[in-house]
Design goal:
Blueprint lengths: L1 H4 L6 H31 L2 H26 L4 H18 L1 H16 L7 E4 L2 E8 L3 E6 L4 E5 H6 L2 E3 L5 E10 L5 H14 L10 E7 L4 E10 L3 H19 L31 H4 L21 H12 L3
Antiparallel strand pairs: 1-2, 1-5, 2-3, 3-4, 6-8, 7-8
């Protein structure tokens, strides 16, 4: 089989094959980088990666096939063997084929692009690459995560940086004694004064309801996606400082005991228990029978009957 594949008729064929490999391979790499950079600059990084792969793999295959032909390899037996191996590999790699097909769907649909921040399940990270088998992410704590394309297609994906602006929601709780309009005005002043918040759409304060220990309000502020985390950090610090200055209480969870619906709180006092006397602590023995007074009979009411009975007992036999 090897002799059928390899037919060297001229030693110069070997040098031609080496020339194809040594010259063609760098040319393919250089052309791939140029195409990827040009497409990324004029279109997007995702399209640049795809264009680079479309140039790299066919170009490398052409160089390799040409070099083999220069060495005298007959590709007909090689292609036949590759077909048999391909069938066996196809049955064993159904998951990989599914990932490849899912990758084409992601490329065509484009739910996100390279450098976008996405959330898949509980994983949040920046997209590094969109490949035929998987999507690579880098989390904010600098971890590398690989997610198969099939998993992404079947899961709910949130593209956090899809749009240029984002809304920040801050939940704020104040004590029940506080005046809600006063708290709302304090929060609105902080939102308007922050340079990273947008005035269009305008900030809004919602009263969400009555919590277990607080009145629950929600401050919503719009900002650009680049300033999202800076705005959140600065507003949280400013709200605490402004509430302290205005005397607005931020409560902590607590519980109160009431005897009735309209009574004062039930006082709870913890004190040491008084000593118990030993005689009081002793309980009656349950094994001793109870002695009861006999019920008086009707004869006891008659004094003559009592005297007759005594005489009967004293009479000798």
């Amino acid at each position: 089989m090897i002799s059928a594949m390899l037919r060297w008729e001229n030693p110069t064929d070997f040098f031609r094959a080496v020339a194809w490999l040594t010259i063609g391979t760098p040319v393919v790499f250089t052309l791939t980088r140029w195409v990827r950079g040009w497409v990324s600059k004029n279109y997007s990084q995702q399209q640049g990666l795809i264009a680079g792969k479309l140039v790299f793999y066919p170009g490398l295959a052409i160089v390799l096939i040409t070099a083999l032909q220069q060495l005298g390899f007959s590709l007909t037996p090689l292609l036949g063997a590759a077909g048999i191996v391909g069938i066996a590999v196809g049955f064993a790699s159904q998951t990989s084929v599914s990932n490849v097909i899912s990758g084409f769907f992601l490329i065509a649909e484009r739910p996100f692009q390279v450098d976008d921040v996405i959330q898949v399940g509980s994983t949040v990270g920046r997209v590094l690459s969109i490949d035929t088998l998987s999507v690579k992410l880098r989390t904010f704590d600098n971890r590398f995560i690989r997610i198969p394309n099939e998993t992404i297609v079947k899961s709910e994906v949130v593209t956090i940086t899809r749009f240029p602006i984002r809304r920040l929601d801050l939940n704020v709780g104040v004590a029940y004694k506080e005046n809600i309009p006063r708290v709302r005005e304090t929060l609105m002043e902080l939102a308007r004064a922050n340079p990273k918040s947008l005035m269009q759409p305008a900030p809004v304060v919602f009263f969400d309801g009555y919590g277990d220990s607080s009145l629950d309000l929600r401050l919503t502020v719009w900002t650009t996606r680049e300033n999202f985390w800076d705005l959140k950090r600065s507003l949280l610090e400013e709200i605490k400082a402004a509430f302290d200055e205005a005397g607005i209480e931020i409560p902590f969870p607590h519980r109160s005991l009431y005897v009735g619906s309209a009574t004062d709180p039930f006082p709870v006092t913890i004190s040491s228990a008084a000593p118990i006397d030993e005689e009081e602590e002793r309980e009656p023995d349950s094994t001793e029978p109870d002695v009861q007074d006999p019920a008086p009979s009707a004869d006891h009411d008659d004094p003559d009957a009592d005297r007759g009975s005594r005489e009967t007992k004293e009479r000798p036999k």
